[in-house]
């Protein structure tokens, strides 16, 4: 059985975090238009779950810097998502968490590529 590499999880994390960040930045603008769209925090929970899965696979083999960035970023995202789900309060922490996830995955991806070449 072939083992999935860390770079796959980095690409998954980068993709998920980028889509999530674009969603968080663009979606509020789309709700202004009369399209019948409303915010659903379950979508945020889905992105947070994918991100959590990716970082759990990555932090075991990554540097302290990358692990710290990813764990802190994921904590910010989960605090924001759970606050919105449970208390119906929107926190801007999700933007910082999404940006941190992208940065952490990019750094890890570059370090991973440098080690394998």
Structure, explained:
- With 117 residues, this protein is mainly α.
- The protein is 78% helix and 0% strand.
- It is built from 4 helices and no strands.
- It has helices spanning 6-30, 41-58, 64-87, 93-116.
- It is elongated and about 50 Å long.
- The two termini are 24 Å apart.
Ordered list of secondary-structure elements with their pairings:
Layout (H helix, E strand, L loop, with lengths): L5 H25 L10 H18 L5 H24 L5 H24 L1
In summary, what is this structure?
The chain has 117 residues and is mainly α. It contains four helices and no strands. It has helices spanning 6-30, 41-58, 64-87, 93-116.
Largest sheet: none
Shape assignment: elongated
Termini Cα gap: 24 Å
Number of helices: 4
Number of strands: 0
Keywords:
117 residues
């Amino acid at each position: 059985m072939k083992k999935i590499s860390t770079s796959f999880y980095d690409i998954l994390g980068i993709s998920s975090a980028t889509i999530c960040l674009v969603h968080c930045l663009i979606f509020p603008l789309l709700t202004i238009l009369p399209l019948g769209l409303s915010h659903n925090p379950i979508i945020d929970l889905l992105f947070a779950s994918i991100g959590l899965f990716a970082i759990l696979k990555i932090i075991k083999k990554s540097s302290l810097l990358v692990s710290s960035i990813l764990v802190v970023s994921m904590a910010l995202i989960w605090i924001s998502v759970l606050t919105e789900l449970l208390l119906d309060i929107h926190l801007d922490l999700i933007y910082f968490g999404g940006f941190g996830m992208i940065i952490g995955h990019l750094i890890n991806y570059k370090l991973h590529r440098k080690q394998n070449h």
